[in-house]
Design a protein that fits this description.
The complex is a heterodimer of chains A (about 290) and B (about 270). Chain A has about 290 residues and is mostly helical. Helices cover about 70% and strands about 0% of the residues of chain A. Chain A has one domain: MetI-like fold. In chain A, α12 runs antiparallel to α13. Chain B is mainly alpha-helical. The chains are: A mainly alpha (about 290), B mainly alpha (about 270).
């Protein structure tokens, strides 16, 4: 028996539904509407100007184009490194090493750092003259490996990606480790009987079963790479010369530093559409598939 | 044997990659101004807490702000999430799946998408630059994930306990307080930890919804340390270290629950 609907149960879900309806969906719609106006002064309403902000955004805004390019580059670098690293670490931990718990704990610590703390820390790491990385390289007589890091237009977004890898690879490892250790031992035994060695067992048996884990990790990493703000804002400020500017920092700059509210709202709503296409639609498809 | 050694080398190298930045942060934060010139890698010559005192005095008001905002927002969002998670897990009504999905998908919407209306709205209802404004914001954006986590947690409790309590004449509310809540402690622990760390570490809402120190959270204060005139790296690092303490302590002592929360929120989402 499943209890059917009644008034008290509506009261129980009402706060959650009302809050999310207002703060997520109505506000997103409000952003969409604002983006169709020329509003820029608080206290005075904007005039409806259709999709002009979007035309400007896509046809005439070089910085916006840079943001798209930088975001794409960040996603490729960040996810391209984090996913394989997570899989490899998880397999290594699964191979029965000593101190597994300690390794897992250490790998997860970066996840506890706020982006403010990690931006501070890594800002100090990346300083070209006095920073920790270059200092360490010089101490090891590896001067030729020192890099300009966040001060270079070529390396600024790479530096951001490195910090993101540092922060999230422990999460990827954790999810993959949970996925790998939940593989039915009988299947592994069967593979062993068939003569598969350790490497073959992982590649042919365990990894194909990690699609749900990959989906999860991919989703969360994508989500964080689309909305990255704190880290970029505080580590590179989007620079030098907008070489690490991303959608979120540009949206903030346009809206709150330049007071171009309507134009900022068009970037906001573009981010909404992007979250929708890249994350929400895959989640919906995944959910529908699972429910059959 | 060689293979095993290789595995350890990789695992330890990675551990060093994770720890090295934290080492330089702590090492620098314990240095005297004089000692700073030896760089962030060379171990500090003496353990000096002066930078901590300086940083603490600059951010103590904001530490209090963050503590108040985080504690209240965590408690409220956990309770509301448990209530809605309970209904979505144990009751069926028309369109329940769609409502649940739409609610939970709110988690994936980037905060920038709603930022401008949020700031205007908070100004209009008089909650801009107040504790209440930030608490309300964090509670609202916490609803998708707390609902999801509690729904998944309650899925582990058998439907029969709700049904039999129903047969005994207890309504939705009594069943919740008498049957569900006493069984919810592990769920609350996981959700509260998850919420606490996220809200404590949050920066964007704190930055846009406050002005001056009245209700400014500590993340914004630490970000501002860099711009102050007395900005020495030992003090900046000390500030960052101070804000990280509560969360790292939670991670170290409650790692099992953190892991549970991370897996509960994602794998079964």
């Amino acid at each position: 028996m499943v209890v059917k609907n009644n008034i008290p149960s509506i009261v129980f879900i009402a706060p959650a539904i009302v809050l999310v309806a207002i703060f997520v969906y109505i506000f997103s719609g409000w952003s969409a509407w604002t983006s169709l106006t020329d509003w820029r002064i608080i206290g005075r309403m904007g005039k409806f100007i259709g999709i002009q902000n979007y035309i400007k955004l896509f046809a005439g805004d070089d910085i916006f184009r840079k943001c798209l390019y930088n975001t794409a580059k960040l996603i490729v670098l960040f996810i391209g490194i984090t996913l394989p690293l997570g899989i490899i670490c998880a397999i290594f931990l699964d191979l029965g090493v000593k101190g597994k718990g300690l390794f897992r704990a250490i790998y997860l610590i970066p996840l506890s750092f706020s982006f403010v703390a990690s931006a501070t820390m890594w800002g100090w790491m990346f300083m070209p003259d006095k920073g920790s990385i270059n200092t360490l390289l010089r101490m090891l007589s590896l001067d030729f490996l020192t890099q300009p890091w966040i001060t270079s237009t070529k390396q600024s977004i790479i530096s951001v990606a490195i910090v993101y890898v540092w922060q999230f690879s422990g999460f990827a490892t954790l999810v993959y480790y949970a996925g790998i250790s939940s593989v039915d031992p009988d299947i592994l035994d069967a593979a062993r009987v068939d003569g598969a060695n350790t490497f073959q067992r992982y590649v042919r048996v365990v990894l194909p079963l990690q699609k749900p884990a990959t989906f999860t990790v991919l989703l969360i990493l994508l989500m964080y790479s689309l909305r990255v703000f704190d880290l970029v804002w505080l580590l590179t400020g989007g620079g030098p010369a907008f070489s690490s500017e991303v959608l979120a920092t540009y949206m903030y700059r346009v809206t709150f530093n330049q007071n171009l509210f309507a134009y900022g709202a068009s970037i906001s709503f573009f981010m909404f559409i992007l979250s929708f296409v890249v994350i929400i639609i895959p989640v919906l498809i995944g959910t529908l598939k699972r429910m059959g | 044997m060689g293979k095993k050694a290789l595995i350890y080398v990789v695992l330890i190298a990675l551990a060093l990659f994770y720890i090295f930045p934290i080492y330089t942060l702590l090492n620098t934060s314990l240095k005297t101004d004089e000692d700073l010139k030896y760089g962030p890698v060379a171990p500090t010559h003496q353990v000096f807490f002066g930078a901590y005192t300086k940083a603490f005095n600059l951010i103590k008001k904001q530490l209090l702000n963050s503590a108040v905002i985080t504690v209240f927002a965590t408690i409220i969002s956990s309770i509301l999430g448990s209530m809605s998670g309970y209904i979505f897990s144990k009751f069926r009504f028309k369109g329940d799946r769609v409502v649940f999905l739409v609610l939970v998908l709110g988690f994936y919407i980037a905060p920038q998408s709603i930022l401008i209306p949020l700031v205007i709205f908070m100004g209009k209802i008089g909650l801009f630059n107040t504790y209440l404004g930030l608490i309300l914001t964090h509670v609202a954006y916490g609803m998708p994930i707390t609902t999801l986590l509690f729904r998944n947690y309650y899925e582990g409790l058998p439907q029969e306990i709700v049904d039999s309590s129903w047969v005994d004449g207890c309504g939705t509310f009594q069943t919740y307080t008498k049957i569900i809540l006493p069984l919810s402690l592990p769920g609350f622990a996981v959700v509260a930890i998850f919420q606490f760390t996220n809200i404590w570490n949050e920066f964007l809402f704190g930055l846009t919804l406050t002005r001056g120190v009245t209700s400014q959270p500590v993340t914004v204060a630490v970000a501002n340390l860099k711009g102050t005139t007395v900005a020495a790296w030992n003090m900046i690092c000390a500030g960052a270290a101070i804000t990280t303490v509560p969360v790292v302590l939670i991670y170290i002592f409650l790692l099992k629950m953190i892991i549970k929360g991370l897996l509960m929120g994602s794998v079964k989402g």
